[in-house]
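Many introductory courses stop at the sequence. We go one step further.
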Amino acid sequence: MSHLATTEAPATPAPPAAPPRAAGQAKPSSDEGRVFNVFSHGFLFLWGALVTIPLLWAVIQSFKTDTEIINDPLGLPEQWLWGAFGRAWTKGHIGEFFINTIIVLIGGVTLTMLLGSMAAYVLARYPFRGNRAVYWMFIAGLTMPIYLGILPLYLTVEKIAKALGLVEVIGLNTHLGLILVYVAYSLPFTIFFLHAFFRTLPSSIAEAASVDGAGHVRLFFQVMMPMAKPGLIGIGIFNVIGQWNQFILPTVIMKDEDKRLLTQGLLELATNARYETDFARLFAGMTIAMLPILAVYLVFHRQVQAGLTGATLK
């Protein structure tokens, strides 16, 4: 009877033992990360509450009567009244101020985005003598406090309009004059933001478009602008919010009552509320003023975040 020879498989070598932990060496733990998350989330929650609660309180006051606002400012209205919004829109002239603001905002944001994107693109993609000097001149505009430029701004708008014979077009108390002031005010930050964004865009696509015969204008509008869409939307929202909430510039430029903007109208409502005792109308005007900006941000908040982080992630 034959015996079958058996062979044993080679033993698998044992994994090397982990080096002994030095005495006093801390054990890896995520405790520090958890503590940091607790503090960061707690801070964000506190900050959100500090912003949201006053806004909600102001909105609720617009549905109350003046007696309820004075006697029970923290309570809910016994009956939700909508009449204050109608009084604010008509008697408080919020409707007229709203339309004036929309006109100036459309012109100001459109020109700011067009001129700012073109200037930022040229400064970021075309090297020429004096490039950095022009760029830093725009950046210097960010360091100028607006309060120091009130008197020079007023005189500049007045004298330029007179010199060109366009007092009724771009002078004081004109929508176009205020639009140009808004553009000058918003350009430095727009160029600063988009300059960094355009520098991150790949050059290969632009070179391929140039080889295919695309000129500078076509290359900018049909190739580079679509690629920079996240950044354009992000800075566009910032310009909308900034120009919508602007108070100093329209106060300096616009003196006629029928051409005033929404921020000036709210100040007028606050002044009249002390004499007419219609506080609900004041809070209704505030609600009307903040709802469009809130709606814009809620619709485009993802694009704003993408625009802010796009230049960093690319």
